[in-house]
Amino acid sequence: MKKILILNGPNLNLLGLRNPGVYGNQSMEQYLEFLRDCYRDIEIEYSQSNHEGELVDLIQSIGYDTDSYSGIVLNAGAYTHTSLAIADAIEAVAVPVVEVHISNVAAREPIRHKSLIAPVCRGTICGFGMDSYRLAIEALI
Ligand code: DQA
User: Fold this and answer.
1) If 0-12 CB within 10 Å is exposed, 13-18 middle and 19+ buried, where does residue 40 land?
2) Cβ proximity of 99 and 125 under 8 Å
3) Rounded distance from Cα 102 to ligand 1 centre (Å)
4) SS3 of 10-78
5) Lowest-pLDDT range, 19-23, 30-34, 46-50?
6) What is the dihedral of CA 5, 103, 125, 30, to 10 degrees?
7) Could you identify the atom of ligand 1 that is nearest to the CA of residue 126?
8) Ligand 1 contacts CB of residue 11 (under 6 A)
9) What is the phi-psi region of residue 68: left when phi exceeds 0, alpha when psi lies from -120 to 50, beta otherwise?
10) Is residue 103 within 6 Å of ligand 1 at its C-beta?
11) Is the CB of residue 122 below 6 angstroms from any atom belonging to ligand 1?
12) pLDDT band at 72 (very low <50, low <70, confident <90, very high)
């Protein structure tokens, strides 16, 4: 069974509590139950970290295992807009990475309009609420 890693960056451990007007009121754990139910023939792994270097480590640790992994669904949170280190890690690995955002970052503050990771990702899905994660999985399978 092929795997997909959903990797969330900083503050996304607070989904369900954080800014519900923007990010909704569902926790990631609740949403993962739904996703795993939708895709019974894919192993959906999940990790979250608030630390940039840990996100780099996680991308590196599975990023060459194309036999096991169909892809990484990455919501890098605020590091999207700042992290050359995460962009370099994505560029370095062989497993495709799809960039995801829950909110429509293009409709938010100008600082969120720039993504340092977009050029090295397979594609970007943004603005569909939690469904952005499911659409990214669809793009990878
Ligand atoms: C986000 C958008 C980012 O700008 C923000 O820093 C986040 C979440 C989103 O999913 O909409 O933490 O990636």
Assistant:
1) exposed
2) yes
3) 7
4) CCHHHCCCCCHHHHCCCCHHHHHHHHHHHCCCCEEEEEECCCHHHHHHHHHHHCCCCCCEEEEEEECHH
5) 19-23
6) 40
7) 11
8) yes
9) alpha
10) yes
11) no
12) very high
For ligand 1, is residue 101 a contact (CB within 6 Å)? yes
Measure the CA–CA gap between 97 and 139, rounded to whole angstroms: 10
CB 58 within 8 A of CB 7: yes
Residue 95 carries which side chain, given as an amino acid letter? Answer: V
Question: How confident is the model over 9-17, as a mean pLDDT?
Answer: 97
The residue nearest atom 7 of ligand 1, judged by CA position, is 77
Q: What is the mean pLDDT of residues 22-37?
A: 96
Contact 4, 69 (CB under 8 A): yes
31, 69, 79, 101: the catalytic one is: 101
Distance, in Å, from the CA atom of 92 to the CA atom of 56, rounded to the nearest integer, reads 11
